């Protein structure tokens, strides 16, 4: 994940804070909750009047859930002003903005536009609002616009000698806020973190302010989403009613993450009282994720609190958020790559616990625990009281062997392996009776309980463990598979990897299937150089004129993992920078056996011949080949593991 150096963080926080004189959010703005709606960002400069109308039509069914704003994100402006006034692009928006606003409002929604605090818009070439704030604000209000996203692009910093970017932003944003009036949503999109808007956005009257530390929109990927969320949590103390921390758009429906990961984003954004602005076309955003009324209620809660950490260790997080009626929202977030149990103490004697994603209601004497799938966030509404409900039950499948173990268990095709399930009467508010666990596996898989799969009762705090012999079919495809176990209506899922260890003797690694592969540019190539970025675009491996028919072509940094099951003894390869990049490029070549590095090539450059690397991997269950960046620009680091072999018994 991206990290911020201590020096950089200190530099940002040390910037002078200049107080602004604007009033805070109005009572009406505070009561409205964080904005919800849709943004045209994915359309880029293909946005048009027709596409916005279509989006409004598709968003209208979500209006009862709170989605109100249809926001045009750039590329709506004409290249030049008309008589000194802003003008919409006549080709993209021939009917004009006022007519479009009327159409949107006729659907029970509101229209939003992007403007820039600089001399030009961020995209599309339109005019910025620099030195025209009052006139531009009056114009968009006259058109019927209810939301302005105010960007930080093309800012003439030379006009502010001796001032840093924070001071410039504090000079440029308040005039637009004042001119728009308190009834228009003012979204400060100064996503260049050096403006530190969290320190002064609320005082400047901003409805929302971005929490990035670098100028880059959110990507539709789990690592980026989790990274941005972590940064957003650092701003929690500055957010509140009517002035919300904005970690960027909701990605559900775009296709780059799983539904579990989209639910995690929606949960974490709700805990942070963040704006819920969809980036996918409204018709593509899954209603099961984005229209859950109980999760939205946590986001829109009138108390306006930003959820904060109860506990966190970098992978496993517990967050709590007080709610207006005295309840608490509790989120359990598993950032790691393997399911694990996350628990927290609620305090007091007895609590009602409602799972806001499943609707299940349970009770507990004080402990809340659940097995949280990899990349998932579970969300609960907790209320103190003695309401009768079944006890909280923690149901685990394939629990990790130690805290921090985020590698899925591995099963070999046609070979029986052990999978464990555990049931704990965590809530301890009543005895569990007739507890039985059953397995529901993919077609062709077999599961047999090695220990009893049923028990007559389970008192508070007691655990019931079942050991299963699970056998994938001999034809099972390598990769990730889900195994589901049931206890009544409750289920637990084990995510396992099917992989086959190398056979006896000496085998080329390029002839084996890896369990994972990471590469800086494009995929890792087998028996070819890395090439450019597309799959299969490599050339024959060549290092200082010597050719190799076999090997792995990577672009450093790269990391390739193989399952070896403790049956292999050594790895050998010729390490070098491929001739396709000339004499540029540099990399280090490493071999890792389980958790330890067992060989290192030293730094190699494009001007050096191949260097033989030999590593002992005796007893290792996993072996990794790693190419590290040589400390310079990574553009030319085409690192070859030529003639890479592994010897096994």
Automatic annotation (TrEMBL):
Catalytic activity from the UniProt record: Hydrolysis of terminal, non-reducing alpha-D-galactose residues in alpha-D-galactosides, including galactose oligosaccharides, galactomannans and galactolipids
Key words of the record: Disulfide bond, Glycosidase, Hydrolase, Signal
Top EC class, one word: hydrolase
Gene3D superfamilies documented for this protein: Aldolase class I, Golgi alpha-mannosidase II, Immunoglobulins, NPCBM/NEW2 domain
Signal sequence coordinates: 1-28
This protein's record includes keyword Cell membrane: no
Pfam family, one: NPCBM
Protein name (database record): Alpha-galactosidase
Organism: Nonomuraea rosea
């Amino acid at each position: 994940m991206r990290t911020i150096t201590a020096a950089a963080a200190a530099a940002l926080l040390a910037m002078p804070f200049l107080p602004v004189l604007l009033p805070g959010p109005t009572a009406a703005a505070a009561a409205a909750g964080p904005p919800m709606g849709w943004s045209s960002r994915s359309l880029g400069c293909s946005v048009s009047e027709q596409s916005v109308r279509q989006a409004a039509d598709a968003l209208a069914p979500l209006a009862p859930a709170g989605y109100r704003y249809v926001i045009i994100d750039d590329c709506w402006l004409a290249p030049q002003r008309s008589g000194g006034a802003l003008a919409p692009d006549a080709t993209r928006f021939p009917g004009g903005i006022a007519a479009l606003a009327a159409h949107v409002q006729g659907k029970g929604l509101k229209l939003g536009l992007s403007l820039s605090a600089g001399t030009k818009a961020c995209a599309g070439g339109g005019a910025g609002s620099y030195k025209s704030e009052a006139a531009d604000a009056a114009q968009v209000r006259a058109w019927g616009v209810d939301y302005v996203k105010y960007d930080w692009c093309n800012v003439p910093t030379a006009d502010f000698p001796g001032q840093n970017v924070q001071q410039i932003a504090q000079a440029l944003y308040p005039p637009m806020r004042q001119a728009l009036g308190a009834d228009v949503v003012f979204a400060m999109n100064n996503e260049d973190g050096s403006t530190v808007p969290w320190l002064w956005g609320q005082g400047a009257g901003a409805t929302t302010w971005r929490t990035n530390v670098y100028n880059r929109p959110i990507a539709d990927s789990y690592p980026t989403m989790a990274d941005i969320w972590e940064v957003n949590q650092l701003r929690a103390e500055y957010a509140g009613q009517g002035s919300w921390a904005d970690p960027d758009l909701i990605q559900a429906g775009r296709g780059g993450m799983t539904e579990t990961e989209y639910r995690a984003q929606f949960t974490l954004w709700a805990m942070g009282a963040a704006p819920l602005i969809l980036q996918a076309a409204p018709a593509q955003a899954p209603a099961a994720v984005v229209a859950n009324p109980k999760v939205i209620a946590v986001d829109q809660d009138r108390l306006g609190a930003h959820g904060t950490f109860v506990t966190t260790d970098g992978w496993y997080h517990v967050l709590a958020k007080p709610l207006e009626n005295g309840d608490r929202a509790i989120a359990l977030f598993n950032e790691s790559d393997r399911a694990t149990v996350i628990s927290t103490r609620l305090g007091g004697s007895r609590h009602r616990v409602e799972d806001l994603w499943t609707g299940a209601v349970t009770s507990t004497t004080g402990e809340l625990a659940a097995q949280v799938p990899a990349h998932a966030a579970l969300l609960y509404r907790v209320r103190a009281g003695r309401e009768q409900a079944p006890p909280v039950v923690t149901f685990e499948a394939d629990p990790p062997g130690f805290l921090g173990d985020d590698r899925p268990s591995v099963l070999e095709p046609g070979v029986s392996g052990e999978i464990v399930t555990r049931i704990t009467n965590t809530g301890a508010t009543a005895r569990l009776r007739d507890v039985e666990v059953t397995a529901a596996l993919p077609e062709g898989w077999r599961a047999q309980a090695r220990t009893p799969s049923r028990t007559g009762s389970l008192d508070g705090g007691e655990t019931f463990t079942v050991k299963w012999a699970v056998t994938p079919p001999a034809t099972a495809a390598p990769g990730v598979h889900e195994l589901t176990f049931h206890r009544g209506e409750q289920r637990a899922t084990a995510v396992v990897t099917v992989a086959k260890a190398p056979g006896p003797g000496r085998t080329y690694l390029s002839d084996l299937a890896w369990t994972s592969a990471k590469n800086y540019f494009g995929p890792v190539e087998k028996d070819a150089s890395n090439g450019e970025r597309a799959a299969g675009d490599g050339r024959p491996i060549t290092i200082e004129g010597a050719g190799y028919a076999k090997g792995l072509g990577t672009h450093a940094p790269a990391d390739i993992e193989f399952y070896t099951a403790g049956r292999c003894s050594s790895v050998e390869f010729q390490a070098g920078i491929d001739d396709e990049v000339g004499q540029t490029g540099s990399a280090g070549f490493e071999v890792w056996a389980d958790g330890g590095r067992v060989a290192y090539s030293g730094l190699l450059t494009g001007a050096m011949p191949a260097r033989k690397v030999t590593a002992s991997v005796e007893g290792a269950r996993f072996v990794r080949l790693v190419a590290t960046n040589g400390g310079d620009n990574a553009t030319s680091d085409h690192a070859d593991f030529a003639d890479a072999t592994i010897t096994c018994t």
